[in-house]
């Protein structure tokens, strides 16, 4: 079992314990987080879906992201809020960033923002990841799932550490 699969299974267990539904909004990760969640045990009970918004226009038109730079904390939080609203879920996780190999918006490859909107509150982290574009995507997905798991663990009173 990969780290991503393990985290997704743990997210599912936590969501089931707390009775919460989950969704994603992904850019950089292109559906990697959603794929892991959909493959987790009993996903149909708690996973509602995903919006893969790779282009800024889709982020703005579908998720309600404010026009402007998309490699920001604001964008990551607005993506998660938009997914929660559209998918009608209790908790949503988002990821936006630069996979590489070239910089974007003045940010170096590996710059990633992951955010979660959940009943326990909103949180967002900036990551500086290293590796090939594929490795950055995989690491970003892992971090997104870790952040989501932490938020859900608060809800179900179960410590994941």
From TrEMBL:
Residues 1-20 are annotated as: Disordered. This is CinA family protein. SUPFAM superfamilies: CinA-like. It holds the Pfam family CinA. It comes from the Bacteria. The lineage of its organism: Bacteria, Bacillati, Actinomycetota, Actinomycetes, Micrococcales. InterPro entries: CinA-like_C (IPR036653), CinA_C (IPR008136). Residues 5-150 form the CinA C-terminal domain. It comes from Ornithinimicrobium avium.
